[in-house]
Amino acid sequence: MAVSAATAASNFLRPLYRIEFPKCPHLSSESQFRLQLLRSHQTQRTTIRATSAAVVVESDLTTQHDLNTQVDLFACPICYEPLIRKGPVGFNLSAIYRSGFKCKRCQKAYTSKDGYLDLTVTSGLRDYTEVQPVRTELFRSPLVSFLYERGWRQNFRQSGFPGPEEEFKMAQEYFEPAKGGLIIDVSCGSGLFSRKFANSGTYSGVVALDFSENMLRQCNDFIKKDDTLSSTNIALVRADVSRLPFASGSVDAVHAGAALHCWPSPSNAVAEITRVLRSGGVFVGTTFLRYTSSTPWILRPFRERTSQGYGFLKEEEIKDLCTSCGLTNYSCKIQNSFIMFTAQKP
Ligand SMILES: C[S@@+](CC[C@H](N)C(=O)[O-])C[C@H]1O[C@@H](n2cnc3c(N)ncnc32)[C@H](O)[C@@H]1O
């Protein structure tokens, strides 16, 4: 499989196709283009036309029956141009794993490894290694990733988290306007919610996205164990929340469970989520609050000091972040230190 992905990637270097990107590649949810990508069971082997997005790929490639070259849903994390994909069609783990992706502008190829597609800027680098803040690095550890759904997450109940079933139901209510669209589960961890979104049948596609390689490996293992999931519209992507590999306005919903406090820069992350959401698209997040209105005044200075290192924010800070990035219709539900908040792209 790794060999076929590498071969597909190297084949990109042959200048056999012509690509025209629109001056302003704004891909709305109504776009025929995305529907074509997500459903893509048709085998158009030589010409793919995306009507509303005005993206045209014409290929002279003589392809095998199941191979295709197309402009993809995923975009380059460096320049945000949609990537060119070569490989089997379809938005599922196996088809994506066997495909190679390339940015025509940056001449950078992206391939899959260990079951996930690596769309970080550092993907494929040989000498440079980047170390993220502790709260990001912690979840890259194999042990933490293994323990996450085997006890670690359950501990969140003590802080007021209602538990995955209830959190999923609450999120689904907020995501009502995004039904039938593409949802990105940002910082999905081992895919606790990505799997629920995929199983719900509510969305045309689910992207389980995280920065941690080991969390994504766990996610892949959980999906493989669930027969109903292996053939559904789900993709596993490694990416940084501050550099999301999607074109502007191309996503219907973004979920970020228990994640905001782990991000190196919540403001960059919320700005980036706002960029990728389409008009009317919905963002739902949960996190731990630094303190709530019921926290006794005497404890607040202590909470200020101890919580800052973990990135826990106050409710008004979360609202400020969302509205300063241009999101509207902010609302939230709070239970002890747990907050679920939502906001919409105007
Ligand atoms: C506490 S887990 C949340 C997992 C899951 N969403 C849930 O609700 O249980 C936080 C996740 O944020 C991810 N994360 C941390 N920094 C990130 C970044 N810069 N970009 C994307 N994900 C990041 C971690 O790898 C980790 O999987």
TrEMBL record:
<keyword id="KW-0808">Transferase</keyword>
<dbReference type="InterPro" id="IPR013216">
    <property type="entry name" value="Methyltransf_11"/>
</dbReference>
<feature type="domain" description="Methyltransferase type 11">
    <location>
        <begin position="185"/>
        <end position="284"/>
    </location>
</feature>
<dbReference type="GO" id="GO:0008757">
    <property type="term" value="F:S-adenosylmethionine-dependent methyltransferase activity"/>
</dbReference>
<comment type="similarity">
    <text>Belongs to the methyltransferase superfamily.</text>
</comment>
<protein>
    <submittedName>
        <fullName>Uncharacterized methyltransferase At2g41040, chloroplastic</fullName>
    </submittedName>
</protein>
<dbReference type="GO" id="GO:0010287">
    <property type="term" value="C:plastoglobule"/>
</dbReference>
<dbReference type="InterPro" id="IPR029063">
    <property type="entry name" value="SAM-dependent_MTases_sf"/>
</dbReference>
<keyword id="KW-0934">Plastid</keyword>
<dbReference type="GO" id="GO:0032259">
    <property type="term" value="P:methylation"/>
</dbReference>
<dbReference type="Pfam" id="PF08241">
    <property type="entry name" value="Methyltransf_11"/>
</dbReference>
<keyword id="KW-0150">Chloroplast</keyword>
<keyword id="KW-0809">Transit peptide</keyword>
<keyword id="KW-0489">Methyltransferase</keyword>
